[in-house]
Amino acid sequence: MRALLAALLTAATLPVLPASDASKLVADVAGKPARPVVLHFWATWCEACRDEFPSIRREYKLLSLPAVLLDAPEPDPVARAIGEPTWDGTLPATFVFDGNGKLSKSFVGRADPAALAAAVRAVKR
Prior knowledge:
By secondary structure, the protein is an alpha+beta fold. The protein has helices at residues 2-12, 25-30, 47-59, 76-82, 113-123, and strands spanning 16-18, 37-41, 69-71, 93-97, 103-108.
């Protein structure tokens, strides 16, 4: 019960962005000067997401991540904004962008760890 309460309190402090702000996600995270970006969409109710997310955090030794709640009841505007119009909202979904903000690789569903690592290495060059 304590863990659930902590999770709810943490979620309550996250910024909530409207779907119309989805196009700004990559630029906001990339910063100045721009650097490669990985956007990972997941949900607490998604079993595959709950399994995959901790392994991504361990693989890349991420202690903290910028996180937002995206108020997007329909996936279409978000899919178009990030440059993957064929994404139907399936979770988890991970998108790798190069330093220019161009979508380099998409992973819909669970990402193969080796393929994700290769995609991240490819844009770090």
